[in-house]
Amino acid sequence: MLAKRLLGIMLLGLLGWVLNACTAQESFQNAEQCAKVEVGMTQEQVRTLMGAPTGDDTAADGGHMWSYLFGSATDTQPIKIIFSADGRVTSKQCAPQAQGDERPDADTSPAQ
Fold this sequence. Notes:
Elements: H1 2-34, H2 43-50, E1 55-58, E2 64-68, E3 79-83, E4 89-93
Antiparallel strand pairs: 1-2, 2-3, 3-4
């Protein structure tokens, strides 16, 4: 019984590690692609570049704000792409490290 419980705990730990690695990889890819988004691009061009957004909010003026995951499992900052009512990018808000030149830290907690 103790062996099964220990195995279960080890598997949960492994699953947590795998999920964190997937989140970090997706964050890095989103950051890399965000740097390529330009004002004036269409929604279709952004979707081709970055894939489907994790969030799509409609603005009062008929525009949209798409958000994409960036960060670790405990500290996320969405990447935001803002579209006008005609479906073209008016601005973007990439995460601070969204230059595409380094992977986001999985541990973003400050040093004690």
